[in-house]
Structure formats: structure tokens, C-alpha cells
Amino acid sequence: MKISTKGRLATTTALGTIGLIAAMIWWANSEVEDAGRQRRQTTGIARQLNEQRLVTFEFILHRHPRALIQERDVSARLERLLENTPFARPEQIEVLEDLRERIATTRRVFAELVSASASAPAGDGADARAGESTRRFEAQLSSQLMILQQESLADASRLTDFSTERITAAQRRVVVVILAGLGLIALTAAGAAWLINRDVLGPINRLEQATREVAAGNWTYQLDIVSRDEIGDLSRNFDAMTQSLRASFAQIERSNHELAALNQEIEAFSYSVSHDLRGPLRSMDGFSLALLEDYGDKLDDEAKDFLGRIRAASQRMGRLIDELLGLSRVTRAELKIKPVNLSEIAREIAASLDQQEPTRPVQWVIDDGVIVQADKALIQIALQNLLENARKFTGKTDRPVVHVGMREHEGEMACFVADNGVGFDMAYADRLFGAFQRLHHESEFSGTGIGLAIVQRIIRRHNGRIWAEAAPGRGATFHFTLQEHAHE
Q: Nearest Cα to 371, choosing from 409, 411, 343?
């Protein structure tokens, strides 16, 4: 029998079971709908009671005839709602009767208030005293109205609670029905599993064994399942696939040899750049220095300035070559991922920077416990560049502060290096991580423009991302994330 036929048989059984469960759920859901109707009824009553209370407030405050018309409309709507109520339980009927009586009393008291307001005298003397008595009587009636309406709202709230309890009970029945149905499905599935185990799972286990053999490198493994169902077809296709993979991996191995040879050529080119370019640069710097030392007394100030510029340019070119080679090494270096304590590394770098420039103190705020999974050598290079930049760009700040820590950002933990230096305009942030891209002139802050490009390459090697937030004169904060790797 084909697996598809067995599947249709199992599907038919499952659909029959689901149909039975659906009928049971429909019955339970009708209970939920009935309870929902009760709740909507009580919600409507509560809404009309609130409107009646607002109308009463308006009449008490302003004695406006419009409030009388609104009160009659609200009372009529309340009567209609109370005539057709879906409640059947004794406690619900009792609360409903109390509510009807209280609403009737409320209407009577409101009518008395209207009558007293209409008959209130005006003037001086005896009329004034009578008017004061009437106002006290109106105040009593108003207070009684507020109490009655508050109690009516409490009754409506109790009715709402009854409806909520019924909904909850109905929902529990739905859950019981669903659980019973799931149990029935489980029994049906157990029977189907017993029938399928022999003809399906056994051959699949053999197929799994074949995949393990192939994954282990045994490309000559043959599955040889001779059944006439879909698994038999899969077995034959699997054997054809392994034969094709043998040919493909042979091609990949040849490509790997070619790639290794290309990497060797790149290494040779880097060596040539490092040595063949340095020679002329050293000559330029050395001969310029010799001219200054040997013929300095014969040269005017402009000539000496030209030679100084030649020396500075050659030295800067040497630093650029070093940075470019470092950028190349970062791209090719093999990662060795392990837990790295960035807090300790940051403190070591900060101490070293303070020793290099002891005359300009910097307040280092380095949080404890900043642990990441990274290549220690590469992440130390990245942090070195970030801290050097932070110290450099706080050079014109009275009280420089550099903060290193970790915080949550959009559901993931991000490390950050923040300073209170000159900052930069975020409109130019897209140039920040490009090689030789500078946002400040070299006369203000020295550098080659390679450091942040190296940092970005290192973070990308760790499948992370780096971004900056800054404002001119308000410092800059560099955030970066590192993807968690398994230990190697």
C-alpha cells in the first residue's frame, strides 16, 4: 500500500473524530453565546443607568427642561431593557427585581424633585424662608437620588458579574470538550501509528542511518530499499544523489586548492606592499632629515618647512600602509571564539593610554561584568581603536569622561563606548566606517581614518553590527553587538 493511501485512511479517521469534536464544541459555544447575550443586556442596563445619572446631575445643576425630556427617554429605554431579560437563576431574578423597584423609586423621587423645583418661591421675608426650606428639601431629594442611582449601578454590576461567571463556566466546558476530543484524537493516532510503524518508520530509520553514513564521509554507502512505495522511490533517488555528490565534492576540493593558492598570492602581495613601498618612504624621510641636519643653515625657513612637510607626508604614508595591512589581516584572520571579559581589556587599554599621555587625565567609567563571546585578539584591537578615538576626541573637553558598558537594545545586549567629546553631525554618519573617511580635519585631531573601518570589519567578522549616536559638542556613543557563537 502506498504511503499516500495510508495517509488518506488516517486523514478520514481524523476528520471523523474532528467532526465529533466540532459538534461538541458547537454545543459548548452556544452556551458561551447565550451568556454573552446576558452580558450585553446587563451592559446596556448599566449604560442607561449612567446616562440617567448624568441627566439627574444636569437637572440638579441647571434645572434645564431638556433634562426632563432626556430623563423620560432614558427611563423608557431602561423599562424596555428590563422587560426582556434572559436571566433564569433565582439570585439573578432577585437582583433584577430589586433593580426594578429601585428604578421605580428613583423615578418617583426625581418627580418629587421636579415638583419641588417648580414650586420654589422667590422674594424676601416669609417667601425667602420658605425658599430656604424648599432648597433643603431639594438637597435631600438630590442626595437620595444619587444614593438610589449608585445602588442601581451596583445591582447592574452584580448582574454583569453573574454573566461573567456564566461565560467562564461555559468556557471551562469548551476546554473540557476540547481536552476530551484531544484524548480521542490521541487514541486514534496511537492506532494509526501502530499500523504505520512497520511499513513506514522502519524504512525511514534505515534512511536516517544512510544519511549519517553519508554525513560521516562514506560516499559509497548504498541504501537499497526495494519497496514499491514512496520510500522506495526516495531510496533510489538517494543513491543517485550520493553518486552526484561524490563528483561535486571532488570539484569543491579542486576549488579549495585553487583558493589556497590565491591566498598565498595575496600574502605575497601584502609582503611586497609592506617592504617595497616602505623602502622609498624611508629614503624620502631619511634624505629629508639629512638635508635639514647637514644643510639646515643654508636653507631658508620656507625650504625647511617644505622638507618638514615631506617627512610628515612620508611618515603618514607609512602609517597608512600599516593600517591597510592591519585591515587586510583582520579580514583573513581565523576566528577563535571564546568568552572574553571586555571590562578587564578596557581597563588595561585605559591604563596604557593614561601612561602614554599622563598630563591629560581622563575619567574612565568601565562597568563590571561585560562578557562577550568573541575572538580575544580581534575584539581587543576593536576596543583599542574605540577607546583611542574616545580619548582623542575628548582632547578639547574640560572634564573628559569615557564610559564602557553594556545595555539592552531592541531585545539584544549591545556593548557601548561613550564619550563627552566634540561629537559629530549624524548627517555624515554614513561616512563614519569607510576607509580614509574623516569627519574632523587632521589639524584638529590626528589620525589615518582607518581605525573605525578596522572596527567595523572585526564586528562583521563576528556577525555583529556597529552604529553610532552623536551630536556636535555633545559627545558620541558607539554601540556594537556580537552574535553568540559556540566555543571552539
A: 343
| Sheet strands side by side (includes 363-366) | 363-366, 401-409, 412-419, 476-481, 465-470
Amino acid identity at 238? F
| Alpha carbons 236 and 244: distance in angstroms, whole number | 13
- The answer to whether the CB of 471 falls within 8 A of the CB of 426 is yes
- 10-residue stretch averages of pLDDT, the chain, 488 residues long: 69 78 78 76 78 77 75 77 71 76 78 71 56 74 77 77 77 78 79 73 77 76 70 75 77 77 64 64 78 80 82 69 61 77 92 85 91 87 87 85 90 90 77 58 54 83 87 88 60
Would you state the pLDDT for residue 416? 94
Task: Please give the DSSP secondary-structure letter assigned to residue 417.
Answer: E
**At 379, which amino acid appears?**
I
Q: Which helix (H) or strand (E) holds 87?
A: none
Count of CB atoms situated within 10 Å of the CB of 132: 12
Longest Cα–Cα distance in the chain:
125
Task: Please state which CATH class domain 3-190 belongs to.
Answer: mainly alpha
What are 147's three cell numbers? Answer: 444614593
Cα distance between the two ends of the chain = 49
3-state secondary structure of 366: strand
Count H helices and E strands in the chain, helices first.
11, 7
- The whole-angstrom separation of Cα 292 and Cα 282 is 15
Fold of 335-488: Heat Shock Protein 90 (3.30.565)
The radius of gyration of the chain's CA atoms, rounded to the nearest angstrom, is 43
Q: What are residue 340's phi and psi, to 5 degrees?
A: -130, 130
Q: What is the reported pLDDT for 486?
A: 38
- Contact call for residues 85 and 96 (beta carbons, < 8 A): yes
Q: Which residue has the cell 607626508?
A: 313
101, containing H or E segment:
helix 90-118
Backbone phi and psi for residue 87, each to the nearest 5 degrees, phi listed first? -85, 140
User: Residue 15, Cβ neighbours under 10 Å: how many?
Assistant: 11
Among residues 398, 405, 410, 396, the alpha carbon closest in space to that of 368 is found at 405
Distance of CA 110 to the CA centre of its chain: 57
Q: Where are the alpha helices (DSSP H) in 277-362?
A: 278-295, 301-332, 342-356
The alpha carbon of residue 109 and the mean position of all alpha carbons in its chain are separated, in whole angstroms, by 58
- The domain spans of the chain are 3-190, 335-488
Residue 200, C-alpha cell as written in the block: 513506514
